[in-house]
Amino acid sequence: MILTIDGRRIGYDDSGGGGVPVVLLHGFPLDRSVWDDQLAALAGTRVIRIDLRGCGESESSDGPALMEALAGDVAGLLDVLHVERAALAGHSIGGYVALAFFRMYAERAAGLALVASHVSEDSGKNPNADPAQRELAASRDAQAVRLETEGTMDAAVESYLPRYFAPHFYRDQPNLVERARALMQRQNPRGCAQLVRGMKERLDSHDLLEDVRVPALVIAGAADSYLKPETLRDTADAMRAEFVLLDDVGHLPMWEAPEKTADALASFAQRARG
User: Fold this and answer.
1) In total, how many domains does the chain have?
2) Peptide bond just before 253 cis, omega within 30 deg
3) In this structure, which of 141, 156, 261, 270 has its CB flanked by the most CB atoms within 10 Å?
């Protein structure tokens, strides 16, 4: 489905029903379908899945897709759907958007979940950041330019696909890797270039953690090449969140450990409903 929020088309789906919904926000460069494997476990919960700008059915940003603008899209969509409060769960960049939403609309956040996501600013601004994060940050400008000038998703696929999964998946489940490749390839290159630029400008969110007074969840992959599990455990401790560490899982727990990820989200949704 598509709604127009502040003049921009935003793709979403809504399972309907009552109670506090869970809003699922996907990672980069993906779309809302990445959550398909979790829907059955969330059957008793109203689930709203949203495509970030430039992904899926959502229109691209006119300039850098700042996390605050993406959070505004979420709030605008919830307004149209007459949803006052929702629990937000964000994967990777979706986590950055969930944090921006919490900063801007804390009274509307009934829960906060980070799935293979973290609270630090872009590593280009932090010389003490993890080397994997510094490498990713250093490539953002060139990646955005390639996405725009080439008009394909190749630059993003080349950067992200080889590191998205735990190493054994590339050997043991090549079909899953190709599924991810196809999902990445169908996104809008120019829209994704603006998402890359928006990620570069994101704020550090450590200051928010002590203010989290709603049910919270942090899911980490023990083999995530981008994020150290101990860093995410520290985040979970700071926000008094449930911490779920998934063995032999990389940066895409929804596909690498779909049942365990679904169970964690279902428990989070239940706690957010009160």
Assistant:
1) 1
2) no
3) 261
Domain harbouring 249, CATH code: 3.40.50.1820
Domain that residue 79 falls in: 2-273
Q: What is the pLDDT of residues 110-146, one digit of tens each?
A: 999 999 999 998 766 666 666 666 566 667 889 999 9
Residue 145: CB partners within 8 Å, gap ≥ 6? 193
Q: Report yes or no: 246 and 219 within 8 Å, Cβ to Cβ.
A: yes
- CA distances (Å), origin 196, targets 18, 122, 213: 35, 11, 30
0.90 exceeded by the pTM? Answer: yes
Q: What is the pLDDT of residue 18?
A: 85
Which residue is associated with the tokens 């949704």? 269
Phi and psi angles of residue 217, each rounded to the nearest 5 degrees, phi first = -150, 140
CB 70 within 8 A of CB 8: no
